[in-house]
């Protein structure tokens, strides 16, 4: 599982595409997304 963002510019390593931009977060593991953004608006994300 990971979190993938739509419309929000995030660092590639935080984009949440398992196997492409980051490793999948496996059951029992955690991942903390850390990035700053100045963007304003309504954005969509999903896991």
Notes on the structure:
The structure is a single chain. With 47 residues, the protein is mainly beta. The protein has a single domain (1-47), classed as Sandwich (Immunoglobulin-like). It is 0% helix and 13% strand. The chain contains no helices and two strands. A two-stranded antiparallel sheet has the order 1-2.
CATH topology: Immunoglobulin-like
The biggest sheet, with number of strands, parallel, antiparallel or mixed sense and barrel status, is:
2 strands, antiparallel
Helix content: under 10%
**Domains (count):** 1
Task: Compute the CA-based radius of gyration.
Answer: 11 Å
Tell me the distance between the termini: 6 Å
CATH H level, superfamily name: Cupredoxins -  blue copper proteins
Largest sheet, spatial ordering of strands? 1-2
Strand content: 5-15%
- The best one-word shape is elongated
Q: Count the DSSP helices.
A: 0
Low-confidence sequence ranges: none
Coarse structural class = mainly beta
Q: What value does the average pLDDT take?
A: 90
